[in-house]
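Take a look at the protein record below and tell me what you see:
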Amino acid sequence: MTVVPPASGEPRRPDGPRNPGDAWVIAESGEKYWGRFGAAGLLAFDPARGILLQHRVSWSHFGGTWGLPGGALHEGESAIVGAIREAQEEAGVPDGAVRPRFTSVLDLGIWSYTTVIADVQVPFDPVISDPESVALEWVPIDEVDERPLHPGFAAAWPMLRALLQVRPVVVVDAANVVGSVPDGWWKDRAGAAARLRLRLEALVVPAEDLDLGGDEWFPEVSMVVEGQARDIDDEASTVAVVRAEAAGDDAIVAEVERRVADVRTVVVVTSDRELSERAERAGAVKVRSAGWLLQLLAAHG
């Protein structure tokens, strides 16, 4: 492997400053890949309009094809941060307009490319904001294959398209999870539930734990609380709080049924055996233990 800076006029903004990551990684076979520290692209999905595609300028790598806004990562930059930064630079994607759903990584050993699949939360019109794009368009799902696609994106598209239909939801038995750790939670049940909710906002689940494709998923989360924990604050959160009016188990089963009816892939977190069986009968595809969830949360800080 060798790392070679681009020639004048090659892929990054020709008239702008370069970053140390803006270089070719060249394999021993002669194949070259853009991005010294790897690369990432954003697949922004809007159910009403399709996915955002970029018509690549002729002087770029595989110029003239259609692909995703994206580019070389900066040193130490995460794929999600890099993909969104590149999409903002190339397509004017506004802050907070998308929410990552999952990532898919092509790892060649000497180089990797991460596709960040994200749902549009606030509709926006893309803006050509640098010289790398001839056009930016929202393309309906059924029409993507009609475009001359970047070969890397063309190879990944069938799998990505299938996973666009998958929306996992993790339904958490908060009482069971909080009660699994003897940290004095019983002195302030609402406070303990609030702390769990805060940690759940950053939940990342490996694809294999969900029996799904891709690499990492950022699922929707419903946290069911009962008893004194129902007094949890109503502050803004990405975690949906479900307050059980009576038995917490009944509320969890009802939430599973609601989410299944909304065509979600539901995973329930509880260590209660009887509740696990009820959740599976209600349509949950998998039940995970409280320990599994706590281990995931600890691994991601």
